[in-house]
Write a structure and sequence with these properties.
Length: 112
């Protein structure tokens, strides 16, 4: 069990060190958490925000895995590899739009 946790932690550290988008999303997550604390969001709003942040970070990590595997298996750009990378990036884009909408819906009542 501890070796699995250790490997997962190493994976987070590697993602942090090598993936600029992951670092940016973590920074945005910290800003959202700070805004939630300042605006005294409710328990249910926290639940929604944490779920959205978690989903976004997981999507980014899965996108990173897809890109790394594609690069490892087929260093030359192949049509299928390009499609895998584009579809994984599209998942991240859809997730980011969804998370932005959730943030807007949660924070707007507190700002108006």
């Amino acid at each position: 069990m501890w070796s699995s946790f250790s490997g997962a932690f190493r994976g987070l550290v590697r993602a942090w060190k090598t993936q600029a988008n992951f670092r940016l999303e973590m920074l945005i997550a910290l800003v959202v958490v700070a805004a939630g604390a300042l605006l005294h969001v409710s328990f249910w709003e926290w639940l929604v925000l944490v779920a959205a942040i978690t989903a976004m970070l997981v999507l980014e990590l899965i996108n990173t895995v897809a890109e790394l595997l594609c690069d490892l298996l087929t260093p030359r750009l192949h049509g299928a590899v390009a499609m895998v990378k584009e579809v994984a990036a599209a998942a991240v884009l859809i997730g980011a739009v969804g998370v932005a909408v959730i943030g807007f819906l949660v924070f707007l009542p507190h700002l108006v």
